[in-house]
Fold this protein.
Amino acid sequence: MKFLVGFSVLLCAFGLLALTGSTQLQQLVGAHGGAPFQVLLPLLIAIPTGIMTLVAAYLIEGALVGWRNSSLHTLTEASGSVRLDVLAVALELLSFRRLGYVLSLGLLYVLEIRSTQPLSVFPVHWLPSWGIQVAVVLLFGSFIGYWVHRLEHTIPALWALHKFHHSADRLSILTAHRQTELTRSVEQALATLPLLFFAVTEPTAPKPHATSALFALVVIYFLYRAFIRVNQYLVHSNLTTDYGWIGRWLLVSPRMHRLHHARAAEYHGKNFTFDLVIWDRLFGTYATCDAVDVRAVPLGLDENPFNHASTLKGVLRDYFLTSYMVFWRALRDGSRAWVPMRAADTRSVAALDRDI
C-alpha cells in the first residue's frame, strides 16, 4: 500500500513537470478543438511554472523520504531559518517588481532595461545543426553559472551577499530561493556580462522533425530542462542520494550540494555547480562522501548573523536589514572587498564570517 501511494505521488509530480512546458501546452490548445483542451489547459497554463515545479518537487521528495523527513514537515518547525526561507520564496515567486527594484538598489531595473536592447551575437546560428547549437548553449550557460557561484565564495563582498543563502541551518526545498533581491540582481548581472560578447539565448536552427531519427535529441533536451528545473529544489531538500554514477559524473545530486552547504571547513570551496558535474571535476572542486556520513554533516555557518529570532519582527529584520548591514560592513574594507582570495590564503570562509 505504501508503495502504491508513493508511486501515485511520483506520477502526479512528473505530470506537473510535464505541464511546465507551457509552450507545448499552448500548441496543444491550438491544435485541438475539444472542450477539455479549450477549458482545462488554459487554466493550467495560467498557473505559474515556478509554482508547479515547486509542488512537483515536494511530491517527489515526500514520496521518497516520507512525511517525517520531508520539507513540508520542516515547515511545521517554524524556526527562524525556515521562516526566512518562506519569506524569501514568497517575495520571489509573487514577483513584486517595484519592490524588487528598491531592494536591489535599482540593479534589477537596469538589468530589465538592458535586456530589451540588442546584444552582439555569438555565432550559434552558424553551427550546422540544432543538436550542436543546444549543446553549445547548455555548456556555455552552465560554465558561466559555475564561475559566478565560485566568485561568490571567493570575493569577500560577493560572499557577504551570498552568505544569506548559506545561513540556513536546516535545508529544505524552499532554501533554493533563500536569497535577497540584491543578491539575485548581482548574480544576474554577473551572468549577463559575458553575454555582451556571447549573446547565447536559444538554438536558432529548426528542430528535427518528429519522424526524424534525430528527434530523440528534442526529447532528451526537454527532459533535461524539466529535470534541471525540479532538481534546483531537490538538491536543497532532505534527500541525500548521490544519483549513482549520474550524480558522480553528469548531473549534480542532493548529496553533492548538501556538502556544499556543510559547516565543516573541509567542504568550503567545493561543489559549485548547479547542473553539470563536469566543471567541479575539471577544476578540482568536486567532493563527496558516503550516505551515512552526509546525514551527520552540520549545515550553515560558524558565525551566523541570521536565524536568531523566529518572530515575524526578527525574520523581517534579518531579510530587510541584517542582510544589507552584512554587505555594507564588507564594503568598508574598500578595494580589498573585491580582491579574490588566493587558494593558499589562510583565511577560510569561516574566517571571513568572523571578520564580517
